[in-house]
Design a protein that fits this description.
Blueprint: H1 4-10, E1 18-19, E2 22-23, H2 34-47, H3 65-76, H4 80-98, H5 107-120, E3 124-127, E4 150-155, E5 158-169, E6 176-179, E7 194-199, E8 205-207, E9 232-243, E10 247-250, H6 256-293, H7 299-324, E11 327-328, E12 334-335, H8 338-363, H9 366-369, H10 382-389, H11 397-411, H12 414-425, H13 430-440, H14 443-453
Parallel strand pairs: 3-6
Antiparallel strand pairs: 1-2, 4-5, 5-9, 6-7, 7-10, 8-9, 11-12
Helix pairs in contact: 1-2, 3-6, 4-5, 4-6, 6-7, 6-8, 6-11, 7-8, 8-13, 10-11, 11-12
Amino acid sequence: MLTGQEYKDSLKDGRKVYFEGRLVEDLGATPGLSEPLDAIADGYDKYYSSAPDAVNPVVTAPRSVQELRDRIPELMELDLCLNVTYQSLMTLLVAAGRLENAAPAYIPRIHAYVEQARKDDIRITECITDAKGNRSLHPGKQEDPDAYVRVVSRRDDGVVIRGAKLHISAAAYGHDLMVMPTKTMKPGEEDYAIACAVPVNSPGVHITNTTYHPLAGDPRDYPVSSHHSIPDSMCIFDDVFVPNERVFLDGETAHAAVFAHSLGLWERLGGVSFMVQQADELVGLAHLIAEANGTAKISHVREKIDEMIIHATLLRAGLEAALSNAHPTPEGYYYPDDMFTNVTKYQGAAQFNLMVRHLHDIAGGAIVTAPSMADFDNPTLRPFLDKYMGTGGGISGEYRSKLFHAIRDTTADAYGGWHLVTNLQSGGGLYAQRLVTRKNYDMERARALGLKAAGLAS
């Protein structure tokens, strides 16, 4: 296993990482990128063991419903890079089970890769969403054939790929990029049916970075995003060679969606787990700011908080249903139920805006106009700020302002905008969850009940 410092050193491998148009020489010396690096290194130190055969317990696959359930609280405390590593490895194991009868030749490669990744204690990030070009056209019909990642040549020892993957969280911080087809491919689109693991420092790989991390201003005004941030990337593959042992699907169009469905399941489970915690956090902020404003007993405020509580509780119930109805792979690894995972993810994403609207309505305009925390350091201003931002009963101006900054940072600033979009899009947009729900819902039972109610049952 690696220590945090050994992890940091391992990233000095010649990778091509860019930020704000510049090639990054040192992630640890770059504001906005250094903070996530430190968080990931802390995760390495947290699980480090010097035992020769030690493996990070987080990346071991659950072998029972209870193990799957017990893993959730731990995952919520992880840095995102370790979390997506877990998701990547679980995706491969679930995909291997679904390929057992369809493309068995890839299964030994998948299991060998998963085992080696655990032994080497590497971090892996998921690369699934393509540039896509004209969304109305299939991959094989695009004006630019590179709009979807594809194989441009095949050699005896591997393949060469070209294209780009977008919206990739933590790509600059991992060791491998897990490339997968973004959708079902059709006959004639064999070159796009490619799944493989690509080292980040492979020749031809270029990684851009965008971040919501506050790059200026007082960190006290950004109490959440200044401590919890991760860049998102475009991963460009400019004729990148991938050896055969790292290729997990190549040309089998009928099975391209296996990886997307498997990854979507684990991403949505992660999304649901986060949404459950996020929903409780929004309830807590709403209750605290209502108390601080003196409005906690007003009926419409209480009703809004009640709605937020119901939303949070339904998400928790959906997560529990997804875990309680988990299924085993042929090897005995457990994964969450598709139906309950997707329904809960959909509900959490579709209702998120309403819950944030309730919070903003309860809190008021000071979410975006509260004095900065540095203003409280000014001896001339502080007495006035305490006087006019305080509300009596022990509620100081500083306390109330800290709540406003937490609400703004979480829901109404760059980090809040990131949540707004990623809650909808992570693991596929709302349409993707509707498709899986439709596929798994017991429509025949519903029809039978309808016919019985109408007196039409035979």
